[in-house]
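quick one: cytidine-5'-monophosphate bound model?
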Amino acid sequence: MPAAGSGVRLGAGLPKAFVELDGRTMLERAVAGLLGSGVVDDVVAVVPDDRVDESRELLAPLGVDGHVVVVTTGGAERTDSVRHGLAALTTAHVAPGSDAAAQGSGTAGYDVLLVHDAARCLTPADPIRRVVEAVRAGEVAVVPVVPVVDTVKQVDASGHVVGTPDRAALRAVQTPQGFAPHVLLAAYDAAGEVATDDAGLVERLGHRVATVDGDPLAFKVTTGEDRLRAEIHLASERSLADGPQSISFGWRPYRPEPGSEPPPDPEENP
Ligand code: C5P
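yep, here:
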C-alpha cells in the first residue's frame, strides 16, 4: 500500500494518506478495506519517513485476527515506494510459525500480491475479490477497470491532436492490481524507470495483463473535489446507518418558521 505521496494536488497541507475523511485517515480506510475484503491476509503500508510512528499507532488496531500490518518508509516516486514495500514484504514481516514463514523468502509464501493506492481508500470488497480470484485462476497480472466516458485524444508536445483512440477499446485503470508474486518481483527487479501503474512494468516484460470490473467507488482522491465526493459518500452511508437526519456541507437551505419575518434581502444588505 504505497501511501508516501505528498498530496500537493489535494492541497490539504499534509500528506494525502493522512487526511481524514469523516474522522478516519485515508490510510486507515484503505488498509481496513483490504483486510475487510476477506481475501487479504497482511498489508505493508509505505509511508513518509516522518510518519512511521504515527502510522504504526494508527494501523495497530487493524493488525488483529491473524492479520499482520507492517509499516515501512517510501521513496521519491511511487515506483520507489512500492519497491520499498516489496523489500519489507520479503524480509521483515512474516509472522514466525505462519505458513508464509514456512514457505521461505522471496514472495514470503503468498500466492497473490496486490498493489493498492491509499488514495483509493473507498474501494469496496468486490473488485478486490475479483482481482484476487483472477490471479488464483491463473492470470499473472490483473487490473480492475472501468469504461472511459470521455473521448480521449492523444496530443503532441505543442498540444495538437495526433490521434483519437476508439473509446470502446479504452478503460480507466484502478487499484488494487494483482500479480503472481514472481512476476511482480521480476518486474520491479527490471524496472529502471518510473511507472504510473504496476501492471505497466509487467507489460514491459511481455506478460499478459487481464482486466476485471472495477468500481466507481475505487476512484482516486486527488483533488479537493474528489475529497468532497468521498465525504458526501461517507456521510450518506452514515446517515443510512443512523436513520433519517440532515446532512450539512457548509450551507443549509433557508426554511422559515411559520409566521416568522422574511429574511433580509441580500441584494439590499450585501
Ligand atoms: O500521486 P498519486 O495520487 O498518483 O499517488 C498514488 C499513490 O501512491 C498514493 O497512495 C500515494 O501516497 C502513493 N505514493 C507513494 N510514494 C510516492 C508517490 C506516491 O507511496 N513517492
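The chain is about 30% helix and 15% strand.
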